[in-house]
Automatic annotation (TrEMBL):
Lineage: Bacteria, Bacillati, Bacillota, Bacilli, Bacillales
Compartmental location: Cell membrane; Membrane raft
UniProt-recorded name of the protein: histidine kinase
Membrane topology: Multi-pass membrane protein
Any Gene Ontology biological process: cellular response to phosphate starvation
Organism: Bacillus licheniformis
Chief location bin: membrane
PANTHER family reported for this sequence: PHOSPHATE REGULON SENSOR PROTEIN PHOR
One cellular-component annotation, GO: membrane raft
Single annotated GO MF: ATP binding
First-tier enzyme category under EC: transferase
Chain ranges of the Histidine kinase domain: 362-580
Gene3D superfamilies per the UniProt record, alphabetical: 1.10.287.130, 6.10.340.10, Histidine kinase-like ATPase, C-terminal domain, PAS domain
Keyword Cytoplasm applies: no
Membrane-spanning segments: 159-179
Amino acid sequence: MIKFRTRLLAALLTLLILVFASLGFLLVHLFHSSYDAKLSSHIEKEAALVASLANGENMKSSEQGAILEKASRELDSRVSLIDTKGQVLFHFGGRAEEQSVIKEALESDLNGEGGGFRINPDDESVYRYVQPLKDDGNVNGYILISTPVDSLQDINQKIWILLGVSLGTAFLIIAGLGARITSQYTNPIESATQVAIELAKGNYKARTFNEDETMLSQSINMLAQNLQDMTRAQEMQRDRLQTVIENIDSGLILIDGKGYIHLVNRAYQKQFHVEADQLLYHFYHEVLEHEEIINLIEEIFMTETKVRKMFKLPIKIERRYFEVDGVPIIGINDEWKGIVLVFHDMTERKQLEEMRKDFVANVSHELKTPITSIKGFTETLLDGAMNERETLLQFLSIILKESSRLQTLIQDLLDLSKIEQQNFTLNIQNCNIGEILAEIEMLLKNKAEEKGITLTLEKPDKPAVASGDPHRLKQIFLNLVNNALTYTPEDGSVTISADVLEDAVQVKVRDTGIGIKQSEIPRIFERFYRIDKDRSRNSGGTGLGLAIVKHLVEAHQGEIDVESERGKGTEFTVRLKRASE
Ligand SMILES: Nc1ncnc2c1ncn2[C@@H]1O[C@H](COP(=O)(O)OP(=O)(O)O)[C@@H](O)[C@H]1O
Ligand SMILES: [Mg+2]
């Protein structure tokens, strides 16, 4: 690309050359013609003078010759006297004129007035003038004056040199100034052009630098700055939007007006176990695997209205519940831009709902059994059985047992609901775990003895002080030790031990009982879950004990673990925060 400045300068110089050349020619021509006119009028006058001096009557007189010779000398010209037939009578100041010249001279005086001529228009060195000699109106002969005009060419040359030098100097000065001025004016334009090119390429950091700040460079810099700010703001906004889209919990896909998928966020990929590449820029019909979703998209395409539907979709090995919101995107001018689908995974909420339903069913069932039993025995007694003292006693003790089961069940339910409440608080203080465990050993010693189980408490070597609610901690360990005694057959043993770790107090309740199957371990903390319902019921269990334990341990920000082997025994480990002494 030829630089703008070069082109401008070249145009300027061409114009200058043209103007100067035509000016030169015009000047030379003007000078030339005015000089020529002057010269010819001068010679004309000379010729007229010579003619007036000459004697028209006696052409050949010696007097005539003397006059002409003098005139030739004075005028420094060739003077010839010619008769009407073209015969040269006298000639002075050089050799005689050629015949062709004389012929021309006579021809050029057609009307007898005389006139100047040049033999050869290219040969400007001699100017000739012919003047008729008249006597009483008759032409007797001609005076022919030939003046050399070599000097005209000299002058011509000088004029050319002078013009050349002066115009050349002027040209150089103007060219120099022109170059300076154009560079001054074009520099900002060139640098602005450069910046504009950079901006077009997307480099918004480009700026122009000039000593003198022109409007152009100022505005181009402002434009660049604005573009930079705008793109930065846009990038920030895009990043923010991207972050939001990528990090929301709900799956999101965007389909354009033609049915091609343009966006798939991370949550969607996780929910449906797909990679973005599998979906992006594909036709939705070909890549979405659930018929229900395809139908939903079609419905939105047809009705152009929002649709919200609940689906149970098979994904890998499970079936998950999704609430899908489909929204048509309609731009300005009712332009159809596509569809956004948002997938809310409702599986957990659904499960929770099921759990709640199960819970109500379980509670009712648990309550029904003892009440039916109490009612049945009471009715039997009223029907007459109460008259037999032995039956009466037996039935009453059953009724007592069932009602105490009811009481424990209700107590456990109340406990559980209280613990699960949002505003459940613990009365946290420093608790001596050793003391609590000793108390529990005292409480359950009898039960262990009845079953022939050795209950051992291994006291910690250091004082084990944990921060917790003493009443609740007692509840935790009572439940665990009680379970250990319940699920351990006669002649077994149950060991309670406490250890002081660096920042925790660890309590273990170990038994040599029936153990728990590995697959059952995650389930035993569920409410009402019992591996062996009869055994649990016989021992007065409600199936809520471990659920309460787990909630309480979590409320203490502690941990609970179970290790068990079927037929060999079980070990529950509870770790509590050690109190800072
Ligand atoms: N030490 C243990 N040994 C074997 N099984 C246990 C032990 N502790 C709990 N389990 C099992 O976990 C189930 C749930 O315990 P829990 O919630 O305390 O209810 P339960 O009222 O039946 O004792 C029990 O029914 C029992 O099957
Ligand atoms: Mg229990």
